[in-house]
Amino acid sequence: MSPKSGNARAPLAVRVAMVVIAVVMAAATAWAAINLYAAVSCNDAARTLEQNVSDASQDAADLEMLRIRQQQVDDQLDDMQLFSALLLPQIRHAVEGNLNTSRQLTQRTQEEIDRQQQGGTDDQQADQPIDGQDAEELLSGGGLTEEQRQRIEELLQSNQSSTPSESTETSEAEDSDATGDGNEQTEVKPW
């Protein structure tokens, strides 16, 4: 009899091992893709969040547009939160921190919109953007990278340096009272 002409098959154990290796490689590729997507999305959301914090601190902030952008950031971070069990720890912590910071800003923005729509009792307070203390609380939320944190701190410092100090405002108010001017003017910080 002549030998069979055809391809020889590998033993069953080798075929099973190859299938297991292929499945493990596919799972590792999917895990890496999820982490890469989450890292890129988290960085994008963090940049948008940083811009929103900066915009919220301005006097003429468009609160409705800010609320819409914040809702988009919240949704983006919520979507990443679905995969938190698969994310690397540093990515998971960044997503959680950014989500907490984003939710705080969204809540404060919505409160400010509600206050303006209700025609709050103190119109000056309703027109004020997020103050320095609120911005500091957002910074301490933990979701920002060190570089983003430094940029926001630089914005805070530049705001403080461009605004007269409290002692200067007090002495100016005392001077105007002493001259009988009677007009009390206070500087509104853009925070």
Rounded to the nearest angstrom, the distance between the terminal CA atoms is 93 Å
Q: What is the arithmetic mean of pLDDT?
A: 75
Helix-residue proportion: over 70%
SSE sequence, one letter per element: HHHHHHH
Please give the largest β-sheet: none
What does the model show?
This is Cell surface protein. Keywords: Membrane, Transmembrane, Transmembrane helix. The chain crosses the membrane at residues 12-34. Residues 102-191 are annotated as: Disordered. With 191 residues, the chain is mainly α. The chain has one domain (19-158). It has 7 helices and no strands. The longest helix has 45 residues, at 12-56. The protein is elongated and about 80 Å long. The protein starts with 11 loop residues before the first helix and ends in a 13-residue tail after the last helix. The relative contact order is 0.11.
